[in-house]
Amino acid sequence: MSPAISAGDVLLDQFLHPRLVAAGFEDLRPVHMPILRDMLVSNLRPSELGARLGLSKQAVNDLVRELESKEYIALEPDPDDGRAKRIVATERGWQASETAQASSNAVGRRWAELVGEERYAVFEEVLRAIVAVRPL
Q1: What local confidence, expressed as pLDDT, does residue 71 receive?
Q2: Cis amide leading into 135 (omega within 30)
């Protein structure tokens, strides 16, 4: 990943975390930001989340348990495999996700102001095309 993309990701996370805390999600830590993006909307198994984020099985299980105890997510039986679980967002998780999305949209508007609407639209289109090719 290019340093510029990594820096953009870090800037976004640094912007989102204080806004989530101010909105009442004080128990979220900065380390949760990249995980929440995938975890709350993807209906993944913990192992799939770990693979997507490049985390060890132990690390992802620790984070899943932590976010489950904070009631952002729940683990539900996987309908395709009775032995496996899927991560699903709880009401609190959806509220955090909506707050983060609104803040993320504000960042996008600010970046569009900085570089111009046209350039930002091209950036967003290219980034969507790259992200759509999962796994990388």
Answers
A1: 95
A2: yes
Sorted by sequence, the CB contacts under 8 Å of residue 89 that are 6+ apart come out as 39, 40, 41, 72, 73, 97
pTM of the shown model? 0.78
| E strand segments, the chain | 73-78, 81-89
Beta bridge partners of 83: none
For residue 36, give the nearest of 60, 5, 3 by alpha carbon.
60
Euclidean distance between CA atoms 102 and 15, whole angstroms: 12
> Hey, how many other C-beta atoms are within 10 angstroms of the C-beta on 42?
16
pLDDT band at 74 (very low <50, low <70, confident <90, very high): very high
Tens digit of each residue's pLDDT (9 = 90 or more) over 49-60 = 888 888 899 998
Report residue 7 as tokens: 């820096």
The predicted-structure confidence for 4-13, as pLDDT tens digits, reads as follows 666 666 677 7
